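Design job #97: recover the sequence.
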């Protein structure tokens, strides 16, 4: 369901009369881990353009792409937790270009009441997760990049700790009843004590104030210098293809978020303004305050160049 954002202008916002005349809807689909920062971005954008009516829809990135490719629901802007979702599933039919805008890292979130909370660290976390009675969760890899990145992290941990069979053991320790559509859905379960640990992102851990295990860079998919090491991990998602194939394949690589304006965006002028705002100093400050690692400059992909002046 779209979350309509009927918001008042923020204190200190640029007066509407000083802005270009911009009005009407702005529909944004975004990854679950972008729910809070994009909500804040839309609030700030609304403050600058009071006649704009933002609507935000949060879901796993793969699920968001499926809304375009299978349901024909076209937003003005789509932001995903893995640029590969756009490059593999939306380009070229539904989008001609994409731009990267942030990095993140995989973490395990928990609370002080979690089993093993007083001793878990970046070296023994896998031993804690394998203890009897420990409840750990992950998101659905068919819907959400955090889900397939969790499987990648398990594969990399097996190699890093030199523990044959570790990935399969850890996956078995996360039964289907502890799986949710996106990583953000698991946060509440950890906070409520229904899960001891959940695979998530550093940005979510920082935004919620939850404790988290800062995993070694060889496992957390955060370090561009370890790109070759990450490529040892491979996840195939049978039946997940949105482009007519039998499956999707994702190789391990550093986490990179991306966005695009779909070809059939219903309100392209407003979408262009919003994307420009995301890459403005004010927009970048919002992303930074939500725990994201910002890129020095966006990297562009796809067969076409984005509209002039967008970045």
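Job complete. Output follows.
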């Amino acid at each position: 369901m779209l979350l309509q954002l009927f918001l008042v202008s923020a204190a200190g916002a640029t007066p509407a009369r000083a802005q270009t005349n911009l009005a009407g809807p702005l529909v944004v689909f975004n990854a679950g881990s972008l729910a809070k920062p994009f909500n804040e971005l839309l609030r700030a954008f609304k403050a600058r353009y009071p006649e704009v009516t933002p609507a935000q829809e949060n879901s796993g990135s793969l699920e968001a792409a499926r809304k375009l490719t299978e349901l024909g629901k076209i937003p003005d802007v789509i932001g995903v937790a893995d640029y590969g979702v756009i490059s593999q599933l939306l380009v070229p039919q539904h989008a001609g270009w994409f731009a990267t805008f942030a990095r993140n890292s995989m973490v395990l979130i928990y609370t002080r009441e979690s089993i093993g909370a007083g001793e878990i660290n970046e070296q023994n976390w896998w031993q804690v997760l394998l203890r009897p009675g420990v409840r750990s969760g992950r998101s659905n890899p068919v819907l959400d990049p955090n889900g397939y990145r969790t499987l990648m992290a398990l594969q990399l941990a097996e190699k890093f700790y030199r523990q044959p069979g570790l990935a399969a053991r850890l996956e078995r320790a996360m039964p289907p009843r502890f799986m949710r559509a996106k990583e953000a859905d698991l946060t509440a379960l950890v906070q409520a004590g229904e899960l001891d640990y959940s695979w998530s992102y550093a940005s979510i851990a920082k935004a919620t104030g939850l404790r988290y295990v800062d995993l070694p860079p060889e496992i957390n998919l955060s370090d561009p210098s370890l790109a070759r090491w990450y490529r040892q991990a491979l996840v195939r998602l049978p039946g997940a293809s949105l482009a007519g194939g039998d499956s999707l394949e994702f190789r391990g690589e550093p986490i990179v978020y991306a966005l695009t304006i779909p070809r059939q965006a219903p309100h392209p002028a407003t979408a262009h303004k919003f994307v420009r705002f995301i890459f403005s100093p004010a927009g970048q400050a919002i992303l930074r305050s939500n725990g994201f690692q910002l890129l020095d400059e966006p990297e562009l992909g796809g067969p076409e160049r984005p509209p002039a002046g967008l970045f």
